[in-house]
Design a protein that fits this description.
- The protein has helices spanning about 5-15, 30-35; strands spanning about 50, 55-60, 65-70.
- The protein is α+β, with helices and mostly antiparallel strands.
- The radius of gyration is 16 Å and the shape is globular.
Length: about 80
């Protein structure tokens, strides 16, 4: 097998292991406090609360659509704090 093909196959398998599937269940409506933090250019209407405690939204790119973190204007992920 060509070394470039082998390298591409290994890289694809390694990256595929990093993807976490998104569970079903869209957030009904984001709280106003969260909406005030969202940076422009993101679609908060498609936001989901993931198991990591952070909001992710559906980014529709030119080739594919995928969930990415919902960010603030300071490029920080928007997450909830667990109450004890």
């Amino acid at each position: 097998m060509n070394s470039k093909v082998w390298l591409a196959a290994c890289a694809s398998l390694a990256l595929a292991g990093c993807v976490t599937p998104t569970p079903e269940g869209q957030v009904e409506e984001l709280p106003d406090e969260v909406l005030a933090l969202v940076a422009p250019g993101q679609d908060p209407s498609s936001a989901r609360l993931e198991p990591d405690g952070c909001y992710w939204y559906l980014h529709r790119g030119p080739v594919e659509s995928t969930y990415i973190p919902l960010l603030t204007r300071e490029q920080r992920m928007i997450c909830v704090v667990a109450q004890s």
